[in-house]
Amino acid sequence: MNTVLNVIWLVLCGLWMAAAYAIVGLVCFILIITIPFGIASFRIASYVLWPFGRTIEARRGAGVGSMIGNIIWVVLFGWWLALGHLVTGVALCLTIIGIPLGLANFKIIPITLLPLGVEIVPAGQPLTPRA
């Protein structure tokens, strides 16, 4: 079922949402000082392409740097990417077949707003601590 939902997702909104993250990532790489944001943006783009069957877990040990980076991210990029997910999610929820896709859009909003200090893991798999 995850594969079917992922294929429908890819066609209806995954490609253009992932393109938005890729553009943000490229801008971050061009600005050099924002390269960590570019890496996070490309990581989210891969999640946005194939979201079903994966989830977000908080990374243990993410410190103050992640918090400060998340604040900067929200101000520069996060708010309008989250707004795109919100608008798309509401539009998809207007149709019965689009409800699971709309809910997936809402599921992506937290990582869109706070991408640093989290990891994308397969659903049902706990986060393994790093040494």
Characterization of the model:
The chain has one domain. The chain is built from four helices and two strands; from the N terminus they run ααβααβ. It has helices at residues 2-30, 35-49, 64-93, 99-113, and strands at residues 54-58, 118-122. It has a two-stranded antiparallel sheet. α3 packs antiparallel against α4 (99-113). It is globular and about 40 Å long. The model has no long low-confidence stretch (mean pLDDT 87).
**Which secondary-structure class do the elements indicate?**
mainly alpha
Helix content: 55-70%
Mean pLDDT: 87
Taken together, the total number of domains comes to 1
- How far the N terminus sits from the C terminus, by CA atoms, comes to 35 Å
Order of SSEs, N→C? HHEHHE
Largest sheet: 2 strands, antiparallel
Please write out the topology.
Blueprint: H1 2-30, H2 35-49, E1 54-58, H3 64-93, H4 99-113, E2 118-122
Antiparallel strand pairs: 1-2
Task: Tell me briefly what this model is.
By secondary structure, the chain is mainly alpha-helical. The chain has one domain.
Keywords:
131 residues, mainly alpha, 4 helices, 2 strands, 8% strand
